[in-house]
Amino acid sequence: LYRQKKFSEAGEAVDNLKAYWATNPPEPMPRLVVVIDEFAQLAKDYPDVLAALVSIGQVGRTLGVHMILATQRPAGVVNEDILANTNLRVALRVQSRDDSSSVIDVPHAASIGRDQPGRAYIKLGEDDINPIQTALVTANTSGSAPESMYVDEITLGDPAPEAPRMPRSEMSDLDELIVAIRDANTAHGFARPRPVWPEPLPEKVELLLPGQTRVDTQD
Questions:
Q1: Residues with catalytic function
Q2: What pTM value is reported for the model?
Q3: In the chain, which stretches have pLDDT less than 50?
Q4: Cα dist. 84→94, 142, 166, 171, 217 in Å?
Q5: Which of 128, 117, 65, 68 is nearest to 92 (CA)?
Q6: Euclidean distance between CA atoms 58 and 52, whole angstroms
Q7: Domains detected in the chain
Q8: DSSP-assigned beta bridge partners for residue 122
């Protein structure tokens, strides 16, 4: 891996990302998060790729490489190698008890109701399983909050007052978060990280033999 090579070049004692940072390297190396959506389909179509991902998961923490694996049907796909290398597991509402048990080892996520969007169970350890509430970030943001807020005193039996309607933005909360992260990165003067994959090849690639300056073609 590229990161392992850089660690080796930085010194014999450099075997993890924090030790690499301590050498004040000339090239920035941020943590890298790899997100794989519907990895069950990936495992079915490309089993060799899944094996490579498991290998990355085994050494990725020291290299600063972290993976997020997401799937709707985990039963039969989440194998022992994956479970052994995932310390944090999250299960939102699933269709079957088996799907829930495949992720968090208990069937709790199958009992989450349809009227509880975003509810999930998180597993941090053998017996450390807790319910959590996740947030929706894909809806359009409501824009800036009003400068003044009025609180009306109500008594039992009075209908709840209608909530004020806020103007909706074309940007989602996730879009707003991305902009804020980029602005913070620029404000702190952080250098742009190295791309993790090569630039795409052009539509046509000319092959030049040694000594050639042009390509001869025949109709």
A1: 38
A2: 0.68
A3: 219
A4: 22, 41, 46, 39, 56
A5: 117
A6: 10
A7: 2-134 (3.40.50.300)
A8: 90, 130
